[in-house]
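Researcher: I'd like a structural prediction for the single chain below. Treat it as a standalone chain; there are no partners to consider.
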Amino acid sequence: MSLTATTIEVGTTHQAVVVDNLTRTQIVQYASASGDYNPLHTDEVFATQVAGYPSVFAHGMLTMGMTGRMLTDYVGDGRLTEFGGRFTSQVWPGDTLTATATVTAVEERDGVLIADVVYDPVGGDAYQRSTKCIAFEGRILVIGFAGGQIQSAALNHALVKNYSIVGLHWGLYAKMNPALMRLPRRAVEARRGRGDQAPGERALGPRRGCRRSAATRGRHHGRQGGLCLVNPFAQLGRLERYAGQTTEQTASVDAAVFDYGGVLTTPVRDSIAAWLDRDTIDPASFSKAIKMWLARSAPDDTPIRRLEIGELSATEFNVLLAAELVGKDGGAVTPGDQLGSMFAEMRPEPVMFDLVQDLKNAGVRVALLSNSWGNTYPRERIDAVFDVVVISGEVSIRKPNPDIFAHALDLLDVRPERVVFIDDAEPNTDGAARLGMHTILHTDPDITRTKLARLVPTLETHI
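Model: Treating it as a single chain, here is the predicted structure.
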């Protein structure tokens, strides 16, 4: 029986079984639909023998998706306006979930009764029911698949009713963009410090009377309304890749962050080519090692990545690299100062340091953000020019890990959308763009200056 204005009161509860004997098939269905094939959920041998769990277990987002049916059954179609949740425990194959919903608060606003409902994991075809009660210009936030069923979106229906569908894989942010996960909380804390009430803020913290262990919370209105599944990132600005593409309305940035090797120096590839030729090393063997250690799909513990965060010394890296190299005569390569030889021909690029100084003269703060390969930096010159210097080996974080970008932003005390990042490696510019920074993929000093001038209109006057 649905809630009505005459029956709403604090303490009212409703209980229902939402999934009976959760099966591995349902877990695999969700893995296929979401693309999340984490072996903890799909590989029994890995989960039990490697990770030490009793078996595979359900994705958190799957159990989150099992919260729909009871809530819509309880509050009634067309009355749910806010819906959010968090995960509190694992769900195993064979589990039967019984959900309990409790009205924790009731208030009247503009003549309308509003109830806060706290409830434990539930199940049902939440997505399809949401499309029935969604209001004009409403937004459905897809956070799982109810009861393990793979839902499909009728795009003509979204067009006719004029609503949007947004997917949010919260757990994926922890892997792909953990720094971004901290931004909503920082924004909320800043607004609270100013005494402001921001859209969506109530969905980020418990309301009065809410138990902190509650998995999900809904909001029920005693009138027709829409379904609004709150996205905490909605107010954080753009996440698209800028790549220096701007419009006439683009405001000047407040800070510019530069990579070092290949951006502030002569091309790294030229120095490497000279080393390979000088030491008669087969270029193909070097390329093979680099691809194996530096590819986007490479594990986090490759020698290069360990070198960049200071876990591996230059001497240790040289031994590992030499073992992968082959001489042009087909013979083995003796370990030595491979890193020193590799960067021996790399020199600071005067026109790029001039560009950095021009930006400072234009009132833009400048920072250096570099992945270190055990090579030395002209620290006296760098420290004299840059306001902030972040070296991966000194902070034990490497690009494109979002944490190192967040660290640089914290030191600069500038929001990401007010920063431009310049690097010659596309994975790094992609990582910066995901945080909302403007990005320029550096290929040539003149091109980079031209793109920066679009973001800093006064730059040309300082040439």
